[in-house]
Design a protein that fits this description.
Elements: H1 3-7, H2 16-25, H3 30-58, H4 78-96, H5 103-118, H6 132-148, H7 150-158, H8 162-178
Amino acid sequence: MNATLKTEIDYTLATQADIVAYNTANAITVESLISAAQEAETVKYGVERAIAAMINDTLSAKRGQRNWFDVEYRETGDLASVWQPHKKALTDIYKAKGHSNPSTPIKRIKGYGFELVHGKAPQAPTSPTRDIFDRLTEDLVRLYKAGINPENEETIKHHKQSAKIRTALAMITKALKELDRLPEAD
């Protein structure tokens, strides 16, 4: 990384005019800034990976057992108790350094811990694709109930698009009848 990016100007505090003047005077291009940002990000993630390795070693993480990186938010028990002081220390340090959401890097560190033990990144849980029939009926029922809610009657009546709202509600009602999902009147 170009050392002048780090030492002569603080991009996080400088004004736009100062940044432009500095970059122009030092022939700093968008490409060199992107390169510096990428290098800084690589260092950041490398350090987080090193933190995970240290915690893995300290807490004896290994395959075939639950490990600190498997502990869920607000989980209790022996493993959670062992992980808690490390999590608190990380959270405190990130907060002291002004990080707005320490849970984000902690989540990455836990992922690196998993990766270092298992040789691969953890699989993100996938939610099943909603059935299109269920999705249509659920969404239409919500719209229908909003449209027939007595609390919305006056709003619809005096709305500048009242006629269009009533037409849409009639179409929603027809669609729900077609799907055999028109809710019972309360």
